[in-house]
Known about the structure:
Layout: E1 3-16, E2 20-27, E3 31-37, E4 56-62, E5 68-77, H1 86-102, H2 110-126, H3 130-142, E6 161-165, E7 170-173, E8 180-181, H4 184-194, H5 198-204, H6 207-225, H7 230-238
Parallel strand pairs: 3-5
Antiparallel strand pairs: 1-2, 1-4, 2-3, 4-5, 6-7, 6-8
Helix pairs in contact: 1-2, 1-7, 2-3, 3-6, 4-6
Bound molecules: zinc ion.
Zinc ion binds near residues 154, 155, 172, 173 and 175.
Amino acid sequence: MVLYRDEAIVLRTYKLGEADRIVNFYSRGRGKIRAVAKGVRRTKSKFGSLLEPASIVNLQLYEGRNLDIVTQAERTVPLVAARSDLDLYSRLSTVLEIVDQIGIEGESNAALYKLTVGAATELDRTKNGLVVTAFIAKVLKLEGVQPVVDRCVVCGVTEPLVAFALHEGGVLCHSCRRGHQLSEEARLCLVAVFEGRVRHVLDTTPPEVALELQTLSAAIIEQHLERRLKSQDVLHNFK
Ligand SMILES: [Zn+2]
């Protein structure tokens, strides 16, 4: 049996049998990992509480025939607030669900790992929903499907830009407009995020623009993934 170590973030877990869990990780070295954590649902389990969504852990695993087996887990960064804050939990869940969808087993993507851990840590620290919007923007860029936000995606004029169309993959001018209505403030935030000025956007965006951006970015990533995000339903149900 081959033993290996990796650093990973827990994406989601499923019950298996009486006491075990299947855990989906996104790891630095091997991309997505699906592994069995044995006995973790027993109260005396050494690392049961470490293997919860959004935990960032150092792992030791055995390579299995179908699923690998977790033999050791140590938490590297404590994520505490998420357990008690529903909004934060929903936002973290959105990030983790996206990575669970786009992550590929056995295919390392250090940039995606860094983005995921960065977003989870920043969310835990600030609770700012725009962290999710910035995360989605960076994921789209990484996937090579960054939307056009500085000119009309149909005719190319640079103003006024008033809408965002999912199927066209970008913003639209007044004459070509269709899809979602988009405020100029929200569009400028998207421009800033794609230019890497995330900190500026997090610090200065008013709440109504932040909400507009969160709704739009969720719609864009859902279109990219070709499915609804369950965590977004959680968010909407509790709003
Ligand atoms: Zn146009």
